[in-house]
Amino acid sequence: MPRNMQGRSLPVSLAASGDGVLVDAAAGEVVRVRQFYLDAAGAVVVTFKSGSNALTGAMSMITGVPQNPPPGDKDAPLFSTNAGEDLILNLSGNVQVSGFIVYDWVAAAPGYT
After folding, report:
1. Distance from C-alpha of 6 to C-alpha of 44, rounded to nearest angstrom
2. Which of 32, 43, 82, 92 could form a disulfide with 77 if both were Cys (CB 3.0 to 4.6 A apart)?
3. Which residues in the chain come in under a pLDDT of 50?
């Protein structure tokens, strides 16, 4: 049964280079990111991914300059995972990245991959 949870907030705290799973996948469901705020303790490049597929371009971060785009809404999220794929934040180096995401879990529409 789909979770269909909307407006969930999740803290982000990653420091290891590579992929960090933010939201675990569930079969037949999509994670839609409506808002995020990220702050880095040093220079690092971050990329949101759906499984192994990039959802954003590489975003360069430096100390004291957060990534904080205007929020999307339930009908127009900033980006969405593919059905059944984890939401991942990839870090280019061992730098502390902290913040939060606001997301929804929704059942994938028929034919959505």
Report:
1. 30
2. 32
3. 1-2
